[in-house]
Amino acid sequence: MPSVANFRFYAELNDFLPPERRFTEFAYGFLDGTTVKDRIESFGVPHTEVDLILVNGQSVDFTYRVQDGDRISVYPVFEAFDIAGLTRLRPEPLREVRFVLDVHLGRLATYLRMLGFDTLYQNDCADEHLAEVSRQEHRILLTRDVGLLKRGSVTHGYYLRATQPREQLAEAVRRFDLGRLAKPFSRCLRCNTLLAQADKDQVRHQIPDQVALLHDEFRHCPDCGRAYWKGGHFRRMRQWIDATVQGSVVARCQPPS
Ligand SMILES: [Zn+2]
């Protein structure tokens, strides 16, 4: 008699499965007790996509040997679930946490970029386009529109409770544990592009004389050309960021270098 275990894969891990196994529990018969990692990969799901495995409700690591009667739940990198207390398979998420924002969240988009998060935002994007970008690029869709999250194509979305942009940022930081992942002042606030080092000569025509006198370190956006330096605005933004993430990002909050 072969042994039987039941598997279920969650969220975008289903992309790797044949249609009959997607979003449903399925039984799998086996003779040998191979590791759960090998079994998962035999179904076509790369182990690198997996962040949490529960066997009969308990978290296990990849070396667990599948037993007769096991119910095995396999989850992708968690962006929106609190799994404190469970065994994550890796200390840092494999995938970069990225966002796409609903059309009414322009200020929040700027704030997330301040923290260094890849954040797509346009003020004239159709719902179906937002859902599609979220699905294809594995971006977390942030919105205040519940209907948008009910679209079948959205697998990674979050309904923001807060209505004020600063509170929304604090909510997102808590919800997605962003403090430990933040890289403040690494991304253009206007266009989301990663900033590059710049010589003073490169940005001299964009900056006030006083700034040129007082500062020697600059960054600029390779795409839109906007210049950044560590002036008063930098210190205020940094204080606010530190307060927002309540110290968890302070150690990482290095100025651009
Ligand atoms: Zn830019």
What key attributes describe this structure?
12 strands; alpha/beta; five-stranded mixed sheet; single chain; binds zinc ion; elongated; four-stranded parallel sheet; disordered C terminus; 8 helices; 257 residues; 19% strand
Please outline what is shown here.
With 257 residues, this protein is α/β, with parallel strands linked by helices. 25% of the residues lie in helices and 19% in strands. It is elongated and about 80 Å long.
The shape is elongated
Low-confidence stretches: 79-83, 247-257
Helix content: 25-40%
Strand percent estimate: 15-25%
Spatial ordering of strands, largest sheet: 2-1-5-3-4
Q: What is the typical, i.e. mean, pLDDT?
A: 83
Report the major sheet: 5 strands, mixed
Distinct bound molecules: zinc ion
Count the beta strands: 12
Euclidean distance between termini CA atoms: 64 Å
Number of helices: 8
Sketch the topology as an H/E string, one letter per element: EEHEEEEHEHEHEHEHHEEH
Task: Please state the CA-atom Rg, rounded to the nearest Å.
Answer: 22 Å
Q: SS-based structural class?
A: alpha/beta
Oligomer: single chain
